[in-house]
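Prompt: I keep going back and forth on a fold encoding question. Comparing notes only helps if you start from a blank page. Show me how you would write down a chain together with its backbone fold. Please set it down just below, with no commentary around it:
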Amino acid sequence: MTVIEKVSTGGCFGFTQKRTIVGGYAWAWWLVTDVQRISLEVMTLNPMCEYVETAQGVPLTVTGVAQCKIMNEDELLTTACEQFLGKTVKEIKMTVLQTLEGHLRAILGE
């Protein structure tokens, strides 16, 4: 199994220049350079909403399957890093799952 990662390096000794390496490698000074990783693999999530009332007042239980992935475009990758860098895959999945369930409830309630 190949692990695809985004590596963010830089920001040491007051320098703010950061580099993003996707699927490659880079030299990092031990104890000097801050290196953080974020997984770019596909995450399978199972959103579930129980007893959600529709606009007509009918209670529903809905389950689904969602495939989520952090896209590899610079702007989107930067946004994902701002939100998720330093978090575990489990924490990222939980955040995305809660967002999906919220949107699912909103759709069902319309």
